[in-house]
Each structure stands twice: as C-alpha cells, then as structure tokens.
C-alpha cells in the first residue's frame, strides 16, 4: 500500500475554491481502481494548513489518479491561483497496525527520496475527544505518544505536526518525519492506528525535482 501525504495552505481568499475543487473531485476519486481512503485534517501548529491523507493499494492506482483529466486540470488551477504553498510526499506503507480489510502490505518500492528532509514518516491516528482546543500542539502530541518532539536529541523527529480531523470531531493525528528511520516513538494510545511510511517522492509548489509530472514553474 501507498500513502499520499498532501499538506496544503490555500490562499485566504481562495478557501471556497479549494473546498469546491475537493467536493468536485470526490466522486471521481471514489471511482479510481485501487483507491482505499482519504481523510482531511486541520493543523494545530500552522493555522490555515490542511492535511489530505490518502491510502492506495499500489502505485498503479496513483498513476490512474495522477493522469485523470479533471484531476490534472484542478491541479493546474490550484498551482496557479489557489495554493499559497503545498508539500506532497508519496511513500510505501511498511507497517500498519490496522490494515484495511481486503488489503495486505507487500514490498513494492525500495528506493527513497533524495531531496526530502527525511525518508521515514510515522503516522498515528486516535480518537481522543479530550484533546480539546485548549491543549497546545506538543500536549496533543504527547497524548498520542510523541513526547517532547522539539528536543534536539538523537532519535527526535526532524519535523512534526498534530492535526484534527475535519469531518469526524475528536479524531486526532500526529505525523513525525525522521531522517532515515523511525525514531524514539514507542508509546502509543490503546486502539490507535500506527503506520510507518518510507518516502519515495517529496516535492512541492516550487521544488519539483521529484515530481512525476510537468507543470509550468510558479514563482516564490
């Protein structure tokens, strides 16, 4: 299985356009052979940043979606006039405590990103209604088992964030990036879903070195 970790910051005056595009693409996405699921989240650390986390059976399914005509047109418009910034990572799921029914983990790609900040990502999802808006991001991270993520010590993540699910209140997600292997994150809430992802491609609005398709350059 593969994950697409798409972090995006729409322009403040283009939120309605972004949400409209997402709603328009949803029925098309559901028809793609190999698509498994997609959940959207809001960042606790960066106001205005959204996370779209999708799961796919294999890379062929991703190719089907990437070459979908309407999806391509929406991407082009997003880059030109909707997105202030985005960061997209594609990776193979190497471990999953809650593999979706009818699917299995199998080795498909052994290569890793050559330009990204880290090649390993840990994703932990849990239902935690008590982690209200009054809690700081590092407190929410600790509730999901990631203690003091900002410490400059061996085994600490090189980047992290925590998110709230948009459509399912109380669902939380922590995402940590590691330089070369999952670090010191071994305590997880009971019932939480934990995934390890090996990042294959890492690119964004400006840096397109590992992007699989061409778009005209967008200035900073």
Automatic annotation (TrEMBL):
Signal sequence range: none
Statement: the UniProt record of this protein carries the keyword Oxidoreductase: yes
Listed Pfam families: ABM (PF03992)
Keywords: Monooxygenase, Oxidoreductase
Domain ABM: 1-76
Coiled-coil ranges (or none): none
GO molecular function, one term: monooxygenase activity
Source species, domain of life: Bacteria
PANTHER family named in the record: ABM DOMAIN-CONTAINING PROTEIN (PTHR37811:SF2), BLL5343 PROTEIN (PTHR37811)
Name of this protein: Antibiotic biosynthesis monooxygenase
Organism (species): Acidisphaera rubrifaciens HS-AP3
């Amino acid at each position: 299985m593969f994950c697409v970790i798409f972090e995006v910051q729409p322009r403040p005056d283009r939120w309605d356009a972004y949400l409209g595009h997402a709603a328009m693409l949803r029925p098309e996405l559901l028809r793609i052979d190999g698509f498994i699921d997609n959940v959207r989240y809001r960042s606790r650390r960066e106001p205005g940043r959204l996370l779209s986390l999708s799961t796919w059976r294999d890379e062929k399914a991703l190719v089907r979606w990437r070459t979908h005509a309407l999806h391509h047109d929406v991407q082009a418009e997003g880059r030109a006039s909707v997105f202030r910034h985005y960061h997209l990572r594609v990776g193979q799921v190497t471990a999953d405590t809650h593999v979706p029914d009818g699917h299995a983990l199998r080795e498909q790609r052994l290569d890793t990103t050559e330009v990204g900040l880290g090649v390993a990502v840990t994703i932990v999802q849990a239902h935690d209604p008590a982690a209200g808006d009054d809690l700081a991001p590092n407190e929410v991270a600790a509730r999901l088992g990631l203690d003091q993520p900002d410490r400059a010590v061996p085994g600490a993540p090189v980047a992290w964030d925590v998110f709230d699910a948009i459509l399912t209140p109380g669902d939380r997600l922590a995402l940590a990036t590691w330089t070369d292997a999952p670090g010191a994150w071994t305590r997880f809430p009971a019932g939480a879903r934990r995934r390890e992802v090996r990042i294959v491609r890492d690119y964004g609005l400006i840096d397109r070195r590992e992007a699989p398709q061409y778009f005209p350059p967008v200035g900073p």
